[in-house]
Structures are given as structure tokens and as C-alpha cells.
Amino acid sequence: VVAHTSDASYLPSLAYANFPEHILLAGDPEPRKPDAVIKALGGEIRSLEQLVGKRDRLWLIVALEHSHEWQRSQASLVKGAYAEVDAVSFGGISITLYVTETN
Asked: I need a surface site. Which of 20, 70, 77, 85 has the fewest CB within 10 A?
């Protein structure tokens, strides 16, 4: 699964990437676009609780354009549940691959 903490990274990725499970995390206190817009564009919104522990691998994309503390808290929750395998950052966006500890 590829999970985004921000619609700032999710919307462009939704338009240009064809990931099988490509989602926006629910709960952003200051989203740039309403959920209805995300869904109208074919996007999927799920809570972090629906993902953590249910997937062996998880890509997390964090774009700290807004809701910085909330996004950091989501990243911390993922980091606490998975082992980090690889990470890259560019232009204020971080992409991290996590796997379960047993992998």
C-alpha cells in the first residue's frame, strides 16, 4: 500500500501513478481539498488504523506543506509499527518504505 499523509502529494500522485492500493490517510485537520473532491477524482481515504498491522509493506509519503504536527504524528505511528527499509527525501517530501519486523 502507498499511503499519503497529505492531499498535496496524493492528488498529483493519483493523477500520474497507477498504484493498486494508493490511499490518502483520513483525519488531516487542515486538508487542502474536501473528502468529496478526493473521492470524485477516484481517490480512496482510509484511516491509519485500517492499514497498520494489516499489510507486510507500506510506503509512506509525507509532504509537509500543512498540518505538520498531525502528519508527523502519523509518521511516528507507522514508524512504531514497522521497520524502516529505505527512505528518500526531496523538495520537502519524504518517501519511506516500511516492512513488518518479521520480514
From this structure: 20
